[in-house]
Design a protein that fits this description.
The protein is an all-alpha fold. The chain has one domain. It contains eleven helices and no strands. α2 runs parallel beside α3 and α6 runs antiparallel to α10. The longest helix has 25 residues.
Length: 208
């Protein structure tokens, strides 16, 4: 069983480390998007710095990073635990990518991809959770900070009632811890009232 874990963890980390936002930023803008906005490579910073189409491409790619190792664990290795380990590795790779100097995104889209591979029906609820937060506030980070633990709680309850694999609950808690840690600077800006809303902040120097 250990080889299956190692293979899927390696697959997940390497997939996660593919710097989708960095690559798309270079194609659209000819520069490193980490020098602008939040300084990250995720969908939000690509949206602010490059626009909607490149952001959509990055979103799809980043979600796929989590989906692929999760499905590999379930369909190839027939193990939810191996699937969760691979998805967790993909999240780590996205946040700390070996192919981009260990400076990646904050992991929200990739974590969603992991749940999409582990518990597809539950994952369909998460965009609704996000919409309920982002539509009235227009602050993406607030959606992540509030929506991620709410979504994780849904997965945990589903696992406790037998509607989702236990491994999905463990993964959701791990993903929440990583995402909240990565959003500490955003929490500080929210408290200070300086966190930018959608469509703003893309031209400023990177702040982290």
């Amino acid at each position: 069983m250990i080889p299956e874990y190692l293979i899927n963890i390696a697959l997940g980390y390497l997939l996660g480390s593919i710097p989708s936002g960095l690559l798309v930023g270079h194609l659209w803008l000819g520069r490193d998007i980490r020098h602008s906005g939040s300084g990250k490579t995720g969908t939000t910073n690509v949206l602010r710095t490059a626009g909607r189409l490149p952001a959509a491409l990055v979103l799809i790619a980043d979600v796929a990073k989590g989906v692929i190792p999760a499905l590999a664990g379930r369909l190839i290795f027939d193990s939810d635990a191996v699937a969760a380990a691979g998805a967790a590795a993909a999240l780590v790779g996205h946040v700390w990518p070996v192919f981009a100097g260990f400076r990646g995104g904050r992991g929200v889209a990739t974590s969603l991809g992991g749940i999409l591979g582990l518990a597809p029906l539950l994952a369909l609820l998460f965009p609704l959770v996000g919409a309920l937060i982002i539509i009235p506030t227009r602050i993406v980070s607030l959606m992540s900070i509030i929506g991620t633990p709410v979504s994780a709680a849904i997965v945990v309850v589903a696992a406790m009632t037998g509607r989702a694999p236990e491994a999905a609950a463990v993964y959701a808690v791990f993903a929440t811890a990583v995402i909240l840690y990565m959003h500490i600077p955003n929490m500080r800006r929210l408290l200070a009232g300086t966190e930018p809303r959608i469509g703003r902040g893309g031209n400023r120097a990177a702040t982290g």
